[in-house]
Specification:
single chain; mainly alpha; Fumarate Reductase Iron-sulfur Protein, Chain B, domain 2; 2 domains; 10 helices; about 55% helix; globular; binds iron/sulfur cluster
């Protein structure tokens, strides 16, 4: 792998919001040691960062690893170099989506999509619509196993069937549009 090529992916990541700290990593492994979900990552948090810096673009963007991040921020609080790994992993998710990668062995992108659709439609999350969208786009039969939970939530008024729009939805639309323009979303 040539040096110029090796620089390309790390530069790309460093220019995505959240990826700015990628060059600061000194591979101490604190993020991996702090991560409650690292055991299920295909590559550990510190390995993924090393792979970014080694220009392993396809391997990183097709990996399910960053999709396992729980956003607990333990790594970000403990990182001695202020890399902000949580933000970095979410920037990798954005890049993966932007470039059409479909990670295997994870339904997290489908959950994100359903969440964002709900926000865009009503300005707030409608749990019922979000979960219906998620199951319909992944495994509709899996919803059957959640029927008792859904019934408990519905019967206690914790999950309304109808979604209400927030006030000021037009302003939120402008904020989302601006964000998408900055990120270069389609
Ligand atoms: S804790 Fe920070 S410096 Fe250490 S490996 Fe993780 S990102 Fe790199
Ligand atoms: S924020 Fe994500 S990567 Fe960092 S420790 Fe928590 S789960 Fe692991």
């Amino acid at each position: 792998m040539g040096k110029t090529q090796a620089m390309n992916f790390v530069n790309e990541v460093s220019q995505v919001p959240g990826g700015e700290g990628v060059n600061l990593c000194m591979q101490c492994g604190t993020c991996t040691a702090s991560c409650p979900s690292a055991k299920i990552w295909e590559f550990t948090p510190s390995e993924i960062i090393a792979m970014v810096r080694a220009d392993m673009r396809d391997e990183v963007l097709s990996s399910s690893s960053m999709w396992c991040c729980l956003s607990c921020y333990s790594c970000t609080v403990r990182c001695p170099r202020d890399v902000k790994p949580t933000n970095l992993f979410h920037s990798l998710e954005s890049l993966a989506i932007k470039h059409g990668y479909k990670p295997q062995n994870t339904n997290t992108p489908a959950m994100y999509n359903s969440f964002v659709k709900s926000i865009k439609k009503n300005g707030r999350v409608s749990e019922f619509n979000m979960m219906m969208g998620y199951y319909l786009s992944t495994n509709p039969f899996a919803a059957l196993g959640m029927m008792s939970v859904a019934w408990n939530l519905l019967s206690h008024g914790r999950m309304p069937l109808s979604a209400r729009k927030i006030k000021g939805k037009n302003d939120l639309d402008k904020i989302i549009k601006k964000l998408e323009d900055i990120r270069g979303d389609q």
